[in-house]
Structure formats: C-alpha cells, structure tokens
Write a structure and sequence with these properties.
Blueprint (H helix, E strand, L loop, with lengths): L3 E10 L2 E11 L4 E5 L6 H9 L6 E6 L2 E2 L5 H7 L1 E3 L12 H10 L7 H11 L15 H13 L5 E5 L7 H16 L3 E5 L3 H5 L4 E6 L2 E6 L1 H5 L2 H6 L8
Helix pairs in contact: 3-4, 3-5
C-alpha cells in the first residue's frame, strides 16, 4: 500500500484548470522529485495534499485513510508536513522558538523542547538556536523552514523549491541535511527547479505540465525522455 495515493485529483481556479484528473502514488521511503515549468500545477498539488486547498474532484488517501476533507492542522497531526518556497519565519522569535512552535503542534511529540533541540542538531542549526529568525541568511532561513516542518514529526515531508536562490556550496550543504532526514525514514516529495539538486537525491522523478503528469520514472529515464526535452526546450532549468 502506498503511503500517499492521489486519485483523479482535479482543481480549478475559475476557468483555469490547475490539476487535471491527476493520479499519483508515493511509496514509503521515496524521495520523489517533481519537475515542471511555471504554471504546471506543482505548488497547487502541494496545497491540495497539505490541506490548504480543497479539490474539486478526486481523493487523497494517506496511510489508507481518505483525508480529502480533513483540514491542514489535522493532516499535520497525521504526519504530513511541508515547507514553503519563500520562508516566512516568525522574525521576532528565536530560531529555537520557531522550531518549538512546530514541535508543540505536531504528531505525537511528547517533549516539544527536546524535539526542537534534536531537530536543530539534525539540520545544523543548533548553534543559531538563540538568534532571531529575522536576521538569518537565506540558507539558514531555508534550513529553519525545513526544521519547523520536521519538528512536527512527519512521516511525509513536502519540500517546495527549497534549493532556489542558493549557491552551489549552500545547495550541497542543504542536500546533505535532506539526505540525513531521509535516512531517518521520512518520505520526501520535493518540488524543485534546480534540477541537479533533485538528480543527486531523488529515487524517482515526475514531470508535470498543464496539471497532468507527462513523465514518471527513474531520474535518468525521465531526463532523457523526449517529452521533458520538449517541455523545457529553450528554458533554463538550472541543470
């Protein structure tokens, strides 16, 4: 049984069809990378899975349970967490306090303070625990964004464009943290335009275009596919 099963998911915003009868299974232990040009429906798909947007049709099944009509906070407590493309930490709070918020409202977290400290250690942010989040660099804001999501104790982590805007060395540092998180048993679904980052971590790639999956397979097969080359012809995908 798949950890996450998306079945015939459809979402419209007015006349704009954003996800078009989309079906996708995510196995436990995957690092599933999602590629697609701007407007392909990637972030809307995350919003649908996380529960901040409701589908017009279709179902979302998580661990065998239909969660299509369950709100975002309840999905978080079931073990689904996400990061956002643009980090928005609580700027006037410390790094530790930001992560503590996630731990306090997460899944089966018995000691939120201990959980927050453990996550900061895991993501390389413990030395900055007492810094105000508003003064962090872009890399550290992205680490904090991932830390807050991880503090909820997820089984499924949704990462949205977390490598965007980083230098090569910063990206490598973040990748190491993501791989370490995955090694603890967390399943990851990752939207990214920085293709080389996905290729170094993903076990599987899916490509969306106009709300539909056009390719689904191993990273090497997907990147060699005629459909992907056609979609990205003339576009900079940061390979």
């Amino acid at each position: 049984m798949a950890l996450l099963s998306i079945n015939a998911l459809t979402k419209r915003f007015g006349a704009l069809l954003v996800t078009d009868d989309l079906s996708l299974d995510v196995a436990s232990g995957d690092i599933l990378g999602i590629l697609g040009p701007n407007g392909a429906g990637k972030t809307t798909l995350f919003n649908l899975v996380a529960g901040t947007v409701k589908p017009d049709a279709g179902t979302i099944v998580y661990q065998g349970q239909d969660i299509s009509n369950i709100g975002a906070s309840d999905r978080c407590r079931l073990g689904i967490a996400r990061s956002f493309q643009v980090p928005h930490p609580f700027s006037g709070m410390t790094v530790f306090e930001n992560v503590l918020v996630g731990a306090a409202f997460g899944r089966d977290v018995k000691d939120p303070e201990a959980k927050a400290l453990a996550i900061l250690e895991q993501t390389g942010m413990k030395s900055k625990a007492n810094q105000l989040a508003g003064g962090l660099t872009l890399l550290d804001r992205k680490r904090l964004e991932m830390s807050r999501a991880l503090a909820t104790n997820p089984k499924l982590l949704l990462l949205d464009e977390i490598a965007g805007g980083l230098t090569d060395s910063e990206c490598a540092s973040l990748l190491a943290a993501i791989k370490d998180v995955h090694s603890t048993g967390v399943t990851i679904v990752w939207i990214e335009h920085v293709v080389h980052a996905l290729l170094s971590a993903a076990t599987r790639l899916v490509v969306l275009n106009f709300g539909k999956i056009i390719v689904d397979g191993t990273p090497s097969d997907v990147m060699e596919s005629r459909e992907v080359k056609s979609v990205y012809l003339g576009e900079d995908v940061n390979v």
